[in-house]
């Protein structure tokens, strides 16, 4: 059974037929080089690397895991060599600034590549993925010297990066972090403290690791307003720019965890390690938030990646596995039984995965367009509009896609029956690997508070209206198109309901702030289902137009229209339950005394 096949046809559909990426790149300053030919060639080349090099290492990574020995971490067989190939092919530098050795291609292109890398082998992909976070921080906030010393090495891929936020007593609540930064006479800082759960925090794939660390200066105010950001390299740079002496940071242990075994999740002990301040003192969290949207889209991709991988494998299996006869008479009369794809329930599971994977792809690519526009659009007004849209869509993409991605991965396993539970098929690994996506980069609960509290209610619904207006315009444009009616009528109704629900929650929250927390995850899921409905309606309109033109690729477009129909008739009605639970209010959660949960 194949491990992973890059879905290039569907990627092209989402990019060029649904989202107009050709015009997007031509009209966005600095993105013009990304012509359709260039993008296609890059996607094809990356697809080969993902299919032939990374995908075969996915099970190896899971079974071998990383090994820790006295502070040294060895990655699974083949990981290091794959990374060397990745660097030699120039992939790390693709979307970074040419001033630091990058190729200057649009950020959105990096997101497309991350999808393929992540679907082929999520654990491996996290090593270069974390480096991008460090590179973006340095690009936005580093001094020229810091960029010259660290960024160029990261862009080249010679060094990798990490993001060190979490400590044993503080995960979500970073205001409590304790790691200290004491100023030294030479302008550097001595960093001391313990960070936990640091992905790619120690490994053997590159000669140096650049840790981006949150810590407190001695006179810092308490809480989140007293956090600063530091570069702490594993090896201090030598005079010639190479990795020099060891710095005072060691990996105390690695975690034994449910999934992503190929990625080292490290306890890092900083013991007077030399660090360098990035950005202004006490503004560390603000600096991080400047690229948080892009990083969270990176995690949203994980939902898509595991949905796609599970879908591919379970579809192949469902076409081959013979069990029982179709209820409506044999479909494979010469065989001992029919392939399980004839059974309605197996189709439910396959179509759910397909709807989430392909719908999620459109949502992520749309968000990727906003990343480009928020950075490069001609006018300040356009950049702000894109940024507003991105800030609304980011918690939805991150939390909703990882939740439904997990549901999809689980259904992929279910299609295999008992064989799904057995290691050899890779389906149980897919479920285990997927689970972390709802936890890191802000749990679903925290993303939901961000969406409803910060993004929607605190802007008096302004950012939400940017998106709902777009959906409204699309629905208006489809008026009179009878074939689109089954999609447009429910979409328009739910789009209006989204605003009404927001007003309702805003109203009850004036009386009781807990109403926001009580509604938030259901509200986020409601928002996700409506957002995906918009993209599926767009896809259906494109596919119907192609079918009307008599386009040769009929089977592809018919499959799009049928999947949209499935989504609207079998997935979107979940919004009705969510509306009911949202309106049920906070009382059913809060009235029970904490002491009375169990006796
Ligand atoms: C494999 C792995 C890799 C990771 N990689 C990194 C990394 O590279 N760098 C890094 O810095 N960190 C990393 N993390 C840490 C990760 O980001 C945190 O685990 C996450 O932020 C949650 O923090 P916590 O585990 O302390 O949970 P807690 O903050 O203790 O939360 C526990 C529960 O309470 C809920 N909760 C907390 N506050 C609220 C609230 N106000 N309202 C509603 N619910 C709330 C949460 O949603 C959660 O369900 C990683 C973690 C893992 C497991």
Note poorly predicted spans.
none
Largest sheet: 7 strands, mixed
* Total strand segments: 11
Task: Tally the helices.
Answer: 20
Domain Acetyl-CoA dehydrogenase-like C-terminal: 467-593
Keywords: FAD, Flavoprotein, Oxidoreductase
Catalytic activity: 3-(methylsulfanyl)propanoyl-CoA + oxidized [electron-transfer flavoprotein] + H(+) = 3-(methylsulfanyl)acryloyl-CoA + reduced [electron-transfer flavoprotein]
Protein name: 3-methylmercaptopropionyl-CoA dehydrogenase
Structure in words:
- By secondary structure, the chain is of the alpha+beta class.
- The chain has a domain of 127 residues.
- Helix content is 57%, strand content 11%.
- The strands form 3 sheets. Strands 3, 4, 5, 6, 7, 10 and 11 form a 7-stranded mixed sheet that branches.
- β8 and β9 form a beta hairpin.
- The protein is globular, with a radius of gyration of 24 Å.
- It starts with 7 loop residues before the first helix and ends in a 9-residue tail after the last helix.
- The model has no long low-confidence stretch (mean pLDDT 96).
- It binds flavin-adenine dinucleotide.
- Flavin-adenine dinucleotide binds next to β3, β5 and α14.
- Flavin-adenine dinucleotide (FAD) binds next to β3, β5 and α14.
- It holds the Pfam family Acyl-CoA_dh_C.
- Its EC number is 1.3.99.41.
- Its cofactor is FAD.
